[in-house]
Amino acid sequence: MILAIAKREFVDAWRDGRFRLAALLVLALIGASALLARAQNERSRTEREAAARLERENWVNQGEKNSHSAGHYGIHVFKPAAALAPFDRGVEPFVGPVAFLEAHRMNQTAFLPARDGTAMRRFGDLSASLALQVLFPLIIVLLCHGTLAGERERGTLRQLLALGVTPRALVAGKAIGLFACTLLLLAPAAVALAWITADTPAQPGADITTRAVALAALYSGYSGLFVLLSVAASALARSARSALAALLGLWAFNCILAPRLASDLVHAALPATKLAEFDAAVNADLQMGLDGHDSRSEHMQEFTRRTLAEHGKSRIEELPFNFQGLAMLEGERFSSAVWQHHFGRLFDQFERQDRAVARAGIAAPLLAVRHASMAFAGTDLAEHRRFALAAERHRNEFVRVLNEDLMRNAPPGDHRYTAGRELWESLPEFRLAPSGFGDAWSTAREGALVLAGWLVAALALLLVVPARLRGADA
Amino acid sequence: MRAFLLELKLAFADRGAWLLVVALAAALALGVRNGAAADGAARADAKRMASAEDDWQRQLKSALLRSPLEPRQVAQRPSIAALPPAPFAALAIGQSDLLPAHEQVSVFRIEQPAEARTELENPGRLLAGRFDLAFVLVWLLPLVLLAAASDLCAGDREAGTLRMVLAQGTSPRLWLARRALARGLPALLLAGGAVFVAAVASDGERATARAWLALLVILAYGLFWLALAALVNGFARTAAAAATAAGSAWVAFVLIVPTLLNLVAESLHPSPSRAELVAESRAAAAATERRGGEVLESFFAEHPELAPPDLQADMLSFRMAVQSEVGKAMAPVKERFAAAALAQQREVERWRFASPAIAAHEALTELAGTGYWRYRHFSERTTEFKDQLLGFFEPRFHRREPVKAADLSQLPRFTFAEEPFADVVSRVTASVAGIVGLAALLTLLALARFSPRRLAA
Description:
Oligomer: heterodimer
Order of helices and strands of chain B: HHHEEHHHHHHHHHHHHHH
Structural class of chain B: mainly alpha
Radius of gyration of chain B: 29 Å
Low-confidence stretches of chain B: none
Strand content of chain A: under 5%
Largest sheet of chain B: 2 strands, antiparallel
């Protein structure tokens, strides 16, 4: 019985001109956005790879110089383009893909792509994920709002029930049939996802296929949720018109109002450090330790006394290594801890804000879905933090090698010491190991669980609906 | 008038209409509050920066009065190029949360590919956008207008009461216009009021003239959506069909067209790669440095007036000569960035009337002073300031000429003259005219649909 009703609902929807129009619209939007976004992503990937090669050449060809001066010369590293960004660009336009690594300081990543665009970006990024997050629920609402309310208005609901169709079978059959239609509408997105996945150069450990499957499951769940809610509203409302009004209200709140409202409320409740406060806190902490350069500072004098005492010498020229190199190493160890502490705290604050916005998905499921979608696509804040931290680890390593070279090879007191290509080439190139599905899941979990909660609640609502359906029709 | 008041009374007989108005009022209040808070923060930052700059000038003056200073000592501290707070920032946060409002300019690093710092902002918040007044006006106001006016007569047609209403001898066009205005006027009045409250919360005097223009934008934009609702009602047979069509139009104009235009503008005029820019400028610097003395020779051959007295250039002279060479090498690349950004903006402006939401958004951010053109003007002014600073310091570096107290008046300080208001007015007027044109077109179509002949048929 349920399957027969589902089949009937599916066929009815398929014959509906509005359904075909919606399918065409979805196909055109997802197809065009996937093609253009794929080309953009490919361009970013090749540009960043070319820039990384050129920067490596700059580094190894910088000529003979003092190894600590090479630390000041520094090196730029570039964030690899995320494979699934053409599906969901997430925060990629709003984070810098370039990090400048130099001695003494950890820099913020720079050159946000959105700064080179127009204000149109603030309307949103046309991508498959935007179509699925915002347009899809609307199409589902328009398609499903009259499924039971329409039957009641036409008087066919009473006939169906009189024929012995149980309300539960009717509701379940309609929900299954409409969900099958929704899956058909999701097909272009699934094809786009499969194409992007298949077209990605192999990256061991990136779990691209698993991520794509998780995205497919996430959006199927989100679409299913709107089918369940629409069927429930259609059963409970007095007319198709009032069901439509209620569902459109829910859609507008979920897709238009909630993202900005939740973001602003969360940022007011959990404010992050301001730039001026950040700078002041970092400077205050840096003053409390060795900076490696200032020989008159109290910390340097104390460090000099301690080092001389440890080696039983009275002058730094008598030490068996270059003292300046050691001071640089020590200063770098201290300053790096300060920078990592403050940037870590800032990232913690941002992640706490993002988690709170995802939890606000309890009121608007889009917030939870968006959070999980970016995490599965590898275009979220956590992924950017991985890049920033990997760049910082690389900076520590390259500055350590340079300072150790100065300490070991520069004759004490000789400021004319220089190193060359051999040392520059010995420093490894920057590589960001792809994050696996486990990493993505640890961030996405929050959003996925909220969506699961919504699905359970909607299913529970659908269990209550049949009784109301009989009552309302009686 | 009495008929209009009756329509107004009928419109508000429904509790849903009151709910809509209350929800809009709350959203407008929140938008004004958020915009005013962002404006306040920007003003506090600007004040802090101006006071730091004044302190530095005072210290410098007292040091120079004691004795002349080496030019490198004076140039050691970067100069600040700061964009003054926007004249009507409470109206639209616009690009102000994304683009830097100040830049530290150091004559030693003018050609270094670095990015000016901005406030630390969660990228998720930049992605979501702010709940400011422009958001309420461009995104939510049309939803409220459509919700209020989507059923102008489709419900009457569905219930069969339309013929009865029209049989009373009223002109159907006048009746429809009166009904649409009665449904939309409260929302438009609230929106207009919010704009003037925002003007008071911003820089009152400068903002008031802009508030009147913003009011024109809102009225034109509101008229467009009311005309659309009327047109939809000319075709829809049921209230649900009218709501569906109006909602779909909103999605098309506010969501799809602007995002599609962004994608098309970025694809047609892609910005060159910043990653390649940084790598290329360092490669240019390295190549110039390798040419060593040859660079200095050619530099002094081009600028004999800058040659040091003993013709023995020091490290600083060399560094400045290298910087000048790198600047020349990278100028075409930087030009490509500016050209791509301008081409994208021109594309947006060319197609802005494809959706009144784009035209309204552009006009409101323009009036707020947080749109493309003011930031571009700031960027151009900063580039000029860099040249002025170089013009002051470079000859002194090369000639090793100390800076004296008398020179202080010539030391460039960044000043920002706002674009002539007439330019802003002309761009906003073009937007308003376009929206009014679109609204007029829809109105004509709707009126044609409601001709007595057609209705009789």
